[in-house]
TrEMBL record:
Span of the signal peptide: none
Catalytic class of the enzyme: oxidoreductase
Stated family: Belongs to the isocitrate and isopropylmalate dehydrogenases family.
Tree of life domain: Bacteria
Keyword Oxidoreductase found: yes
GO terms for biological process, alphabetical: glyoxylate cycle; isocitrate metabolic process; tricarboxylic acid cycle
Molecular function GO labels: isocitrate dehydrogenase (NAD+) activity; isocitrate dehydrogenase (NADP+) activity; magnesium ion binding; NAD binding
Pfam families xrefs: Iso_dh (PF00180)
Catalysis: reaction(s): D-threo-isocitrate + NADP(+) = 2-oxoglutarate + CO2 + NADPH
PROSITE patterns the record matches: IDH_IMDH
InterPro entries named in the record: IsoCit/isopropylmalate_DH_CS (IPR019818), Isocitrate_DH_bac-typ (IPR014273), IsoPropMal-DH-like_dom (IPR024084)
Species whose genome carries this gene: Verrucomicrobia subdivision 6 bacterium BACL9 MAG-120820-bin42
Keywords, sorted A to Z: Glyoxylate bypass, Metal-binding, Oxidoreductase
Name of the protein: Isocitrate dehydrogenase [NADP]
Amino acid sequence: MSKNTPITVARGDGIGPEIMEATLAILKGGGARLDIEEIEIGEKVYLRGNTAGIEPSAWDSLRRTKVFLKAPITTPQGGGYKSLNVTTRKAFGLYANIRPCIAYAPYIRTKHPGMDVVIVRENEEDTYSGIEHRQTHDVMQCLKLISRPGCEKIVRYAFEYARAYGRKKVTCFIKDNIMKMTDGLFHQVFDEIGVEYPEIEKEHWIVDIGAAKLADTPEAFDVIVMPNLYGDILSDVAAQIAGSVGLAGSANIGDGCAMFEAIHGSAPRRAGQNLANPSGLFLGAVQMLVHIGQADVAEKVHNAWLKTIEDGVHTYDIFKEGVSKEKVGTKEFAAAVVARIGQKPSKLKAVDYSRANTR
């Protein structure tokens, strides 16, 4: 019997504890082989005077397990508080952010039922390097950093991901008609590395018209790779085009560590009411299972989730009269998924992770 994999779990703030409990219940029901170490992050830590939102002991757990399943957190308003996501990405070199954006029509409302796009976002550089200063009294400046090693890692990851998951095309979004050196370097590296993958179609778009095409005809894209800022914005847009930001999970991958999460926030107004949809965090956890070598469990629980969606068992945010059959709470949704473990959807496309290996 395979030994358990140690992971670090943070239940977060707002709806975080509820959706984490639901997600872990599904993973347990599917037979995930995990040893869980829990840490505290977020609002309570910030308010204790820690501007990073994470205690030193929590870093010890992350260094030990190298796998982080993180619920959303609340960052207090006001200056002086650092983004925990940015801090974690930099500390562990999490250079690749992976966000699948998939339509689940007709069970989830969308104008683009054929959408199946994966956004691969560079995660450490660009304007998110956080290098800002006051140039004059009236002028603030932010530096945009793009490096050849950074471009090479993210572009190669995008092509390797496409190959591992049987994807046919990789598209590059850049703005090198204006930012000829920074985005120009990203484009150049894309062309250089793309030659090594002759079986995969390559194309590039200027990001503004590419974004318009994504909004109008997302079916035209497969895997899209782009610098940090564009990827942050467009992955949220793509998730909503597919049906709901609440259904999108996210993986942050580095050479030795990885973090998995939902892309939505902590929604404090919905906290403690058994309303929240755990699907985004759950789908992030599915990516985690594949990453740690438990693709068999990932496939089993993901297909059970698809079957639940197909059966019309929906939380309030995706409930639609005439399509949905039962409106359920967070706990009940998790129980419905667990009850369907071993089943596959009959109309939605079932997942197959037998070939997946991007670690």
